[in-house]
Amino acid sequence: MTDLADSHAVIECYFEAVREHYLPHFDRVRQTKLFVAPCTKELCVRDTDRHYAGCSLDGKSIVCAPEMADLDYHHVIGILFHEFGHSVDYLYPGEFTLGPERSARRRLREDVSDTQWIRWQKQWDKRDADVIEFTADAIASGVAGAPIVYGGPCLLQNFRTGEARPHGLR
Fold first, then answer.
1. Fewer C-beta within 10 Å: the chain N or C terminus?
2. What predicted TM-score, i.e. pTM, was given to this entire model?
């Protein structure tokens, strides 16, 4: 698909459908906006063969490459569930940690002392790239009710065929 408006229209349908899955659990995703943009000097989510989307660090923007509109339905859904997982993680900073078998555990601010919350926030800020990615997958899997997996030659997210995210995948 070469037309940016057409790509945006296709991706937006998926974006809204995935957001609807998240809204009953995380109302802050109403703030998350979709941007479909080709690579520029300032921004390029399509910097490798496996990158089609990214989420801003405040969780309020998901940017997709126009080429994502040409992907199989299962990959578009998997990628967007993953990116909304990042969005939730960033919109609710410090509330998520990885539990057993890479499951997402939510910790609420009102359940702990100020001192404990500050400790958790500092630890959350220091997470490595793998923990950030595993957390997004864990949140996505919890919302979808199925494990997100990585398949195909580029190891793209989906819910059909593949394996758990390998360590070090970027």
1. C
2. 0.94
Strand 104-106 versus strand 33-36 pairing type: unpaired
Residue 28's pLDDT is 97
Left if phi > 0, otherwise alpha if psi is -120 to 50, otherwise beta: which for 101?
left
C-alpha closest to that of 37 among 69, 2, 63, 19: 63
Phi, psi of 113 (to 5 degrees): -70, 165
Q: Is residue 9 part of a domain?
A: yes
Please indicate, yes or no, if residue 169 is contained in any of the structural domains: no
Cβ–Cβ < 8 Å for 14, 76 = yes
If the chain, 170 residues long, is cut into consecutive pieces of 10 residues, what is the mean pLDDT of each piece? Answer: 87 98 97 92 81 95 96 97 98 91 88 90 92 96 96 94 92
* Count of domains forming the chain: 1
Q: Is residue 47 part of a domain?
A: yes
Q: Bin 23: left if φ > 0, else alpha if -120 < ψ < 50, else beta.
A: alpha
- Residue 133 resides in a domain: yes
What DSSP character marks residue 152?
Answer: T
Residue 118 lies in domain: 4-158
For residue 102, the model assigns a pLDDT of: 87
DSSP state of 3: -
